[in-house]
């Protein structure tokens, strides 16, 4: 059942209004990973709640309790649960999204203010933090609701919503909420859900839409080396004491090779290598080495072989070094020996890896490598957050509906991909609700999620809103 023409016409006619709503959302700096922005995440929850209510959605804000971040106890932002439609003859689809964003500073290298949406008239880019990850896609669902309300059109399915404000910081509290709602059975918020749809990832390139049936898991570590009671003068104490930064760099250099091999014993080995048949799956995707190099802005692909690059991103684990807290990083040439430094790194996990299996290997390895340094400094290893990988059955009607919707809107066959990023709650939905989960991305591979100058193309926002609406019609029309 295709979406009615008046729905898609409404989306086109209201594009500028929808972009203004995206600008309003981007203007709230809802950074979950920075304690000083916690109130902004709450403000964003309230703003989104107001929008949903005005579009006819019944909502409840759920208190997720408290957590500790950087040694500070903080109130978690509320999750938003929403519902519209209760027709037993219709399917019920649960929509998930997150309204928090990654940190962003103009000084990181942004060309414009990160929390002011800039509409580049020449390129059609909507530039601002959260435009593609994940405020644009969340607003895509609001656009669908608004079109139906304004046109007096009945939604083809019942909808349930679950929006959170902590996805970029480990989705704290959300698993417990989903489990407790599921345990309530028929009284629970997710009762009767037939499938889940998440729009929170990206096409492989800038031209071919995709549907995504897998996500990598993640385990994030903080390794702290400390020794002196205070920062030291390197002229007075260099070569006289064990230096925390020297120890930390030695440890960090033993985690991964420049070509991506993970050096923590047992981690890479957990994953069986791909056979020729599996490699062909990757070779057949619409992707080239130029796509990855264009997306990152440098000729730095890890291999000239497309399948190797794609498998590195989708079906193999990876270890990335993210930063060092406590190190001198300013301009000038300060001759300091930092007293305490913390290295941050994470490992993206794929089946059959889980944090439970991988984390003990990381702890054991770092401790044994630190012992080899014969340093008198102190080592502390913490896992800050983790989540399991997820893979779905893409032969399900949920995917069939999304394929039909993509063909209708983009006149193209979508690629079937696995995503290199992580959305920890996906597996919880799949397991707790026992239903199929689909990832239906809105943005392109070069959007720069988590990076400087994050953008969503205007056409992806507008056609993507049509795609989300059309998917609901196609899902309604398919027999379960
Ligand atoms: C794919 C999704 N849009 C995303 O960006 N997820 C984050 C989740 C995360 C976990 N720790 C910090 N962020 C990601 O994959 O990095
Ligand atoms: Zn993200
Ligand atoms: Zn996201």
Automatic annotation (TrEMBL):
Cofactors, names only: Mn(2+)
Keywords: Hydrolase, Manganese, Metal-binding, Metalloprotease, Protease
Site (Important for catalytic activity): 233
Binding site for Mn(2+) 2: 98, 133, 200
Annotated GO MF terms: metal ion binding; metallodipeptidase activity
Cofactor notes: Binds 2 manganese ions per subunit.
The Peptidase M20 dimerisation domain, residue ranges: 213-371
Family stated for the protein in its record: Belongs to the peptidase M20A family.
Name listed for the protein in its UniProt record: CNDP dipeptidase
């Amino acid at each position: 059942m295709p979406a009615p023409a008046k729905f898609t016409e409404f989306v086109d006619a209201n594009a500028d209004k929808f972009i203004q709503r995206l600008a309003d959302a981007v203007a709230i700096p809802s950074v979950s990973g920075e304690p000083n922005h916690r109130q902004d995440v709450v403000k964003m929850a309230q703003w989104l709640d107001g929008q949903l209510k005005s579009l006819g959605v019944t909502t409840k804000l759920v208190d997720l309790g408290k957590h500790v971040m950087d040694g500070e106890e903080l109130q978690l932002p509320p999750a938003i649960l929403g519902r519209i439609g209760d027709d037993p003859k219709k399917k019920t689809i649960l929509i998930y999204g997150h309204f928090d964003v990654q940190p962003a500073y103009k000084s990181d290298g942004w060309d414009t203010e990160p929390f002011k949406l800039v509409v580049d008239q020449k390129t059609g880019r909507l530039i601002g933090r959260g435009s593609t990850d994940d405020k644009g896609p969340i607003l895509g669902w609001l656009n669908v609701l608004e079109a139906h309300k304004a046109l007096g059109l009945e939604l083809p399915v019942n909808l349930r919503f679950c929006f959170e404000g902590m996805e970029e910081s480990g989705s704290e509290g959300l698993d417990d909420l989903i489990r407790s709602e599921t345990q309530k059975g028929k009284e629970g918020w997710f009762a009767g859900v037939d499938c889940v749809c998440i729009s929170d990832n990206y096409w492989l390139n800038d031209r071919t839409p995709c549907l995504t049936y897998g996500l990598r898991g993640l385990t994030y570590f903080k390794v702290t080396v400390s020794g002196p009671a205070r920062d030291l003068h390197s002229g007075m104490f260099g070569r006289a004491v064990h230096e925390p930064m020297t120890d930390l760099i030695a440890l960090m250099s033993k985690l991964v090779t420049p070509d991506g091999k993970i050096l923590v014993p047992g981690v890479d080995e957990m994953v069986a290598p791909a056979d020729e048949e599996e490699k062909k799956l990757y070779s057949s995707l619409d992707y080239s080495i130029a796509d990855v190099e264009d997306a990152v802005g440098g000729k730095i692909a890890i291999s000239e072989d497309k399948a190797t690059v794609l498998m590195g991103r989708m079906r193999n684990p990876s270890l990335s070094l993210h930063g060092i807290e406590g190190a001198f990083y300013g301009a000038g040439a300060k001759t300091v020996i930092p007293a305490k430094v913390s290295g941050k790194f994470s490992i993206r996990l794929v089946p059959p890896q889980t944090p439970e299996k991988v984390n003990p290997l990381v702890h054991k390895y770092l401790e044994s490598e630190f012992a080899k340094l014969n340093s008198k400094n102190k080592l502390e290893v913490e896992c800050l957050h983790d989540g399991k990988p997820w893979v779905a059955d893409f032969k399900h009607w949920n995917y069939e509906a999304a394929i039909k919707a993509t063909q209708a809107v983009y006149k193209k066959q979508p690629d079937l991909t696995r995503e290199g990023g992580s959305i920890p709650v996906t597996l919880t939905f799949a397991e707790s609700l026992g239903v199929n989960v689909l990832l239906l991305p809105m943005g392109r591979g070069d959007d720069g999620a988590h990076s400087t100058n994050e953008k969503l193309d205007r056409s992806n926002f507008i056609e993507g809103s049509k795609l989300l609406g059309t998917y609901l019609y196609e899902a309604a029309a398919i027999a379960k």
